[in-house]
Amino acid sequence: MKGSQRSIGAYLAIALLWLAPAVPAEELVIEQVTVVSPQHPKPQPRQNVLIRDGRIVSVGSQPVKAASGATRIDGRGKFLTPGIMDSHVHVGDVPGLALGQNDPAMQSLADAYIRQQPRSYLYHGVTQVLNLASGPEQLAAFEAQPQHPDLFSCGPVIVLDGYPTVFIDPAVRYQVMPDYVYEPANAAAHPLPKGADPAQHTPEVIIDKIAASGAPCVKIFIEDGFAEGTGWPLMSKETLQRVRAATRKRGLTLVAHANAIDMQRIAVEAQVDVIAHGLWNWNEYSSDEGVPPAIAAHLRDIHAKKIGYQPTMRVLAALADLFREDTLKDPAYAKVVPAPLLQWYETPAGQWFKDEMRKGMGNPPDMKAMHNYLVVGSRGMRAAKYLHDLGHPLLLGSDTPSAPTFGNQPGYDTYREMRMMAQSGIPLPTIFQAATINNARQFGLDKDYGSVEAGKIANLLLLTANPLETMRAWTSIDRIILRGAVIKRESLAAPRE
Ligand SMILES: [Zn+2]
């Protein structure tokens, strides 16, 4: 009886299928292309790639059987790669605009930026971004744009009054950031705000909320101060242990902001999965050449414990760029920055952050200010090269924007981060891995991303040069393929009205 019921059901399903109007699958075929993908040590020439409904169906040298209506691309002389993943971005922050500037003219600049931002990432071949802590409205605004990279986001676990909330007026801090962790060890200087329930501000409660939001990761901030800031509160060892246990229980990747040697040591001891910055603040070990023994020992520890590492070299470079007279004249800026915002950067008001940084350094001239940042940045470059030489896989993360500097711009900084890795002496195939499969694996996304393989999401790039041989490949992107849709690069450039 049961068996016959099942077969009647099956017949019915087949009949319904047959009656349903046929929806043709969206097919794309790329023919005779050279595939450059991290699972192959060498480029694979004369490959035919079939893409259906946004996923790769097959990759091989045999001819492809596609529907008659399929889009076909002649791939001869071109290189097909996975789309780039940038695993350290902040889509809610507008480069160069002050936090909380509440004026309609600024709002209109911010709106123009928000419209262009995802297109700028795509323009530079970035088809996946990982946002390290923004509000849900900011993430929704990014995804509301008609063309945007696939967006992933880590939830923040911030200690009461700690970085980055130190930049928010204490009067509104808890409204802006209601999900802080209360640290009993800091109670004397940072007591629980009046009326707050300590049971709602434990690592477990905050991390449960992040897990419920569907985020793949949690970001913590190990920062006791920079520039003029000092003595910012940190989580105690006990609290960090609870954060680690709760993230493990929920299967969340634990990412830590830390860029100074003492802070990174705390991160390593807390057994984080990823350190979201390069090591450039060497404190008492500072040196203008090589890697001092104490720094080298720490980097070997990172390698031994298999901790993911984002060099984020653009953080210091983007501060130096505030003081470089041709930064805003760079033709690449016009491609990614909306025209009104670019014009505003040139005005005295648009230079506010440069003025503030200069004052903080005791008013040096431009060249001296730029030099100061480049010296610190060069330590981060040497640390990344040292790690690479140990055989440590690096992660591409640009930290765009890392501060309110116009020196960071979406997409262009992902490219400039890769260029700085090359300038540090890191070979191009390693940079390619950092930009593709390493990021996908580290954040548990390699089922869908990171290589040109059957079954993966068709976020791909068609390049006119081989990225394993020249950095120029990343500036000569012919087309961007986003979930199987083919986009011409120039169509993504910022409008020049
Ligand atoms: Zn960041």
TrEMBL record:
What InterPro entries does the annotation carry? Answer: Amidohydro-rel, Metal-dep_hydrolase_composite, Metal_Hydrolase, Metallo-dep_Hydrolase
Could you tell me the superkingdom of the organism this chain comes from?
Answer: Bacteria
* Pfam families on file: Amidohydro_1
Which lineage is the organism of this entry classified under, starting from the top rank?
Bacteria, Pseudomonadati, Pseudomonadota, Gammaproteobacteria, Steroidobacterales
Q: Which organism is it from?
A: Steroidobacter gossypii
Provide the protein name. Amidohydrolase family protein
Coiled-coil intervals in this record? none
List residues of the Amidohydrolase-related domain.
381-484
